[in-house]
Structures are given as C-alpha cells and as structure tokens.
Amino acid sequence: MKSGYYFWSGDIAAAEGAIAAGCRFYAGYPITPSSEIAERMALRLPQIGGKFIQMEDEIGSIAAIIGASWTGERAMTATSGPGISLMNENIGLAIMMEAPIVVVNAMRGDPSTGLPTLIGQGDLMQARYGSHGSYEIIVLYPNSIQETFDLMMDAFNMAEKYRVPVMYLIDALLAHMFERVYVPPEEEIERKIIRRKVPNKVPSRPFEPDDDLVPPMPLIGQGHKIHATGLTHDERGYPNLTPKAQEKLVRRLNEKIIKHEREIWKVEEYKTEDADKIIVSFGGESRAVRNAVNSARKNGKKVGMLRLITLWPFPHEFIKKYTADFYVAELNYGQMYHKVREYADGNNVKLIAKMGGEIHTPNEILKEIGGV
Amino acid sequence: MSLMEDLRYGVEDLLRTERLPHVWCPGCGIGITLNAFLRAVLRRKIDPNKLVVVSGIGCTGRAAGYVNVDSFHTTHGRAIPFAIGIKFARPELTVVVFSGDGDLFAIGGNHFVNAARRNHSILVIAVNNFTYGMTGGQHGPTTPTGAYTTTTPYGNPDRPFNIPHLAISLGAPYVARWTTYHVNQLQNSIYKALGMKGFRLIEVISQCPTVYGRRNSMRTPLSMMEYFEKNSIVKNDASFEEMELKYNEKIVVGEFRVAKDIPTYEERYDEVIRRAKNAD
Ligand code: SF4
C-alpha cells in the first residue's frame, strides 16, 4: 500500500497490516465478523504474488498455514470464536512443531453461535488455553483501527522470532468500524520486519535451541530433511515418547515465551501514575473506559486505565507495581478479572462485567467505580 | 549391479535408517507400500531435497517418520490440508500424502473430497487395511459390511466407502487400486502417478493381521496375502458396483482413471495472479 491516509474497517486494517508485515499466504473460511479479512486478502495477495485460498473449513485453513509456514512464508488465517474452537487442535500442532503463524479471532458474542455481528470478549481464556496441553502462547489485542494495522507487525515478528502461534484478537466492534489509518512509507515498514532465524548448516537439527531457547527454523526444500511431528520429540524432531523428552521439550516450549515476556508485553498506562482507581481493560471495551477515565479526571477523581495490548503472557508486573483499587471491565462473566486478582497483592479488585453485544457506556463504568 | 539391487540400496538412502526398527508389526502391509513408493521415487529420479511426505495419525501415519526427506507427521485427518499449504506455497516441490483409510476418509473426509475437487497437485497414497490399527482394531469408514472388529463384535452394520469411485466422482485425474500382493503393479502405478499432475489417488489394500485379520479368520500375514492373491481381479474399466469391496469377496484392482491435462488448482491460481497484476 502506498503511504498515506486511508479510511478502513478493522478487518481491512488487519489484512493490510498483515500484508505490510510481510504476510504472503492466507488460508481461511468465511465467518462473521472476520469475513472481510478474507475478502481483502483474496483481492490483494495475488496482486503482489501472494497466495490466498478459501478452504473447506477452519481445520483445513490452519493446517494449510502451518504447512505454508514451513516453506518460509509468513502465513495467516482469520476467523471468529466458533472457528477458533475448530482450530484449537492445530494450534497445539503449531506449538509442538514450533511453526510461526498468526491467527486472527474477531470476537463476537458467544458461547456457540451467539451474536455473530456484535461484540463479545468471551474468548480470552480460550485464546490462552484453547488447545489441549500445557503451553504458552502470545495473544495481542488492539483497540483502534490504526493499532489494528500497526500491531500486525508485532504479531508476525513475535511469531517468527519465538516460533510460536500468535493469536490476534479483534472484536466485532473493531472489525466493522471504520476509522482513518495512516500507512507509513514502505521503507519505514520494511525496516521493522524481523525475519526468522534460519540454520547456518545443512542438514540441521530443527529443534535444537539457541541460548534464547528458540531453534533456528530450517525450510522445506533445502536439503535439511526436516522431520516435524506433533508427538513429543528430540532435537532432531524424532519421536521420543519418554518422560525425560517430555520434560525437556514441553518445559522449553513454555520457557521460551516466559523468558522473553518483558519484550512481548505491551501495555498502555493511561493516567495511572497518581491513580487510586485503575480500570483494566482491552480492545473495543477500552474505548468506553478511556471516556470514563477522562470524565472522572475532569471532576478531579484520580482514575486511570491499564490497557492490556498483550493479554498473554499476562503482563503481571503492570498490576504488581500499583497500589490502587483495581476494576476489570470486560464483556464476559469474568476472565482477565481472575488474572488481575492473582497479582493485585492485597488491593481490591472488582469486576465490571457485561455479557456482550455492546460495550459498557462510560456512565455504567463510572457508576461501578463509585460515581463521578 | 542389477536394477533390483540399485533400488534396494537407493531405498536405504531414502530411509532414516537410524530410526529402525519401525513400529509396524511383522507382516504388516504398510512397509511393502512404503518400499514400493520409495522405489518409484528412485525410478522417477525425483530430487529427494524437493520431495515432501506428509502423514496423518495412525499406523500408516508413522510413515512420514521413516522417510529421509522433508516429512511431516501432522494431526489426525489433517495431512491433506497441511500438504496443500506446502504445495500451494511452493508448487515446484513434489508433495505426497501417505496415510491410512481412517485418517483420510473418516476424520479427514471433508479435506479429501474438497482437495480432490479443487484438483491440488498432490499424490495421495491411501493404505486401506479396513480398520483402525493403532487404536486396537475398531471399525472404520472402509470396514466391509459384516466384518468383525472390536467395535463391531456382531459384524459390521456399516457400509464402507467405495474409494476409487469417490475419487473419480470428484474429478481426480489419476485413480488406481492395488493390493500389497501386487507389488510390481503398485510400484509402476506410483511411478506413473509421480509423473502426472493434479490430485492423484492410489488406494492400497493392505493386510493388518494383528488386529483385523485375526478377527476375520486370516490370522497370519500370509493368509491375508493369499486372500488378496486369490480374490483380486485386474479390471481397469471396472464399474461402480465392481469397485465396491464386499466382505471376503472379490477385490477389483487396476487403474480406473487416467486423465491428462486437467488444470490443477495451482495452475488456475497462476491465472488469478496474472489477472490481479494486470488489473492493478
Ligand atoms: S496393527 Fe495392523 S496396520 Fe498397524 S502395524 Fe500392526 S499389522 Fe500394521
């Protein structure tokens, strides 16, 4: 995309952000409210020699991008909650094979078919724990159309750098809302792209980590004779079905993320410095919270917002460092609320919950924090 | 050295010999099929560095773990879409799916039908042993009606897929069926299919003496092979009914469809790229 200003929806910005971040392979299955991401990719990818394919379902879509990832492509799929439920099996495969992929979840009201066109935030725990097994994953969540575009660069860079799936949350509000987006010049964008480490000898041991706990990733077709499996394996990639191999591999898969959590954390601290009340929020919902914070401040109340951009690994230090009453505003029956409680260390934590379909009004939030 | 010896040594190069012995039971047909595949690869002179083998889960799914080329042991049923991702991203690679009947046609059935319909250029070698071997011999989508398995103790009430007919109905350009008794025909068939493009399916009727044969009065590998030998009929122009597999009855084998010049998905997408660039 030429540098300049555009008027885009979140779905378009997610697609364009991915393309700007080097994504050249997309496989997906239509689902509201993410379908316009697929439509944009179908239009744009072939223009630049990329590949778009509409698969038979979400299971096939994620399988295809994991395959493409092993060829060196920066690969993505997009869906909504029901689709993530189907993809979760292969999220685990990407974790185990250490295949970098980006999976967008445009969250709608749920469970089940729920509210296809309306906002929900019920998939925050699913994003983290959806696949079976004990693993760490990266989950990012922007709150504006500009950020939906910009943050895609981080999503792809983190996926490639740590060889891990990155779950990119947006929501029905962001997906379908239009805002102005600035696209920087191409050279400026190019400079931000972090390419994955590749081995310097052939054949390599595809799962032998460097000091950063991340193994350089060989590509298909270059004589590495890669073997990758969802089974517990050794550094060559060969199945090794023993407690010892399990301990070594699964521990590393978790620790390679935790070791770098400070680099992965992105949190906006909005007027929190002197705050005695801090509202934790994210995504579409945080737009109402910001408005509430501004109103409270006008009336001299010391209220701030911690906006989690990285949801997982949970940025706990940002909770620990404050002494304040915490409020967690989210569109579910209480998910991140429990994480905040875990790290609030004696501070009060209150949940401001709504089941979805719409965000809170600023007044509803103000009432919950004791009025203006 | 004779051709046979050449092939034998060549096959060893294409195996991760350090991983042997393999997990398969003595007398299992999967090894015969893998051997035929690797010999066909050698005869085709395919650069091993440009060959990719993808398997799903199950006894046959372990095949990817033994071939000394880029190889992927994926999740249950998902070998085909995984392979499509590779092929679509890098059309210059030879991509082969080597997996079992339960994996490809039950849990992976939706992927199979849609990949065949779109005509992705991959070769699918489907080892059909009439059962789920790895999990102890339950009935599957290919178990003949009436057969005994651990989940059909009174005989199978279910009706099996007619796999070649299914593939033909989807427009697959190459469709063949052999048994593990037909080692030469099988190898020649894989050799031929490797030289073609589009979605190619070879069904290999294979013996699982350990969990299928023993419940169906074919306790030994030999007795299963004898069944294949005595009951197989080669008939390339077999009808739908003739391709059906009935319990302990005839097995019609052959090359049921050979169609050249059907554009593949990857070729048709090249046209999409051409149009998108021109529209720019
Ligand atoms: S259980 Fe059957 S299919 Fe599996 S390895 Fe043994 S003989 Fe072969």
Number of helices of chain B: 10
Strand content of chain B: 15-25%
String of helices and strands of chain A: EHEHEHEHEEHEHEHEHEHHEEHEEHEHEH
Mean pLDDT of chain A equals: 98
* Shape designation of chain B: globular
Number of strands of chain B: 10
Name the CATH superfamily assignment of the largest domain in chain A. Thiamin diphosphate (ThDP)-binding fold, Pyr/PP domains
Instruction: Report the span from N to C terminus of chain B.
Output: 58 Å
Q: Can you give the helix content of chain B as a percent range?
A: 25-40%
Could you please say which CATH topology of chain B applies here? Rossmann fold
Secondary-structure-based class of chain B equals alpha/beta
Characterise this structure.
The complex is a heterodimer of chains A (372) and B (280). Chain A has 372 residues and is of the alpha/beta class. Helices cover 38% and strands 23% of the residues of chain A. Chain A folds into two domains: 4-192, Thiamin diphosphate (ThDP)-binding fold, Pyr/PP domains (Rossmann fold, 3-Layer(aba) Sandwich), CATH 3.40.50; 268-369, Rossmann fold (3-Layer(aba) Sandwich). Chain A has helices at residues 10-20, 35-44, 58-70, 81-97, 124-129, 145-162, 172-176, 186-192, 243-258, 261-264, 285-298, 317-320, 336-343, 362-368, and strands spanning 4-9, 23-28, 51-54, 74-79, 101-109, 115-119, 138-140, 165-171, 178-183, 227-229, 267-270, 277-281, 303-308, 310-312, 325-330, 349-353. In chain A, helix 11 crosses helix 14. The longest helix of chain A has 18 residues, at 145-162. Chain A is globular, with a radius of gyration of 21 Å. Chain B is of the alpha/beta class and 280 residues long. Chain B has one domain: Rossmann fold (3-Layer(aba) Sandwich). In chain B, 37% of the residues lie in helices and 18% in strands. Chain A binds chain B through residues 25, 27, 43, 46-47, 49, 51, 53, 55-57, 59-61, 63-71, 73, 75, 89-90, 92-93, 97, 220-231, 238-239, and chain B through 16, 19, 48-50, 52, 54, 64-65, 68-75, 77-78, 80-86, 88-90, 92-93, 110-111, 113-114, 269, 272-273, 275-277, 279-280. Strand 10 of chain A pairs parallel with strand 2 of chain B, so a sheet runs across the interface. The complex binds iron/sulfur cluster (SF4). Residues 24-25, 28, 30, 59, 129, 133, 208-211 of chain B line the site of iron/sulfur cluster (SF4). Iron/sulfur cluster is lined by residues 24-25, 28, 30, 59, 129, 133, 208-211 of chain B.
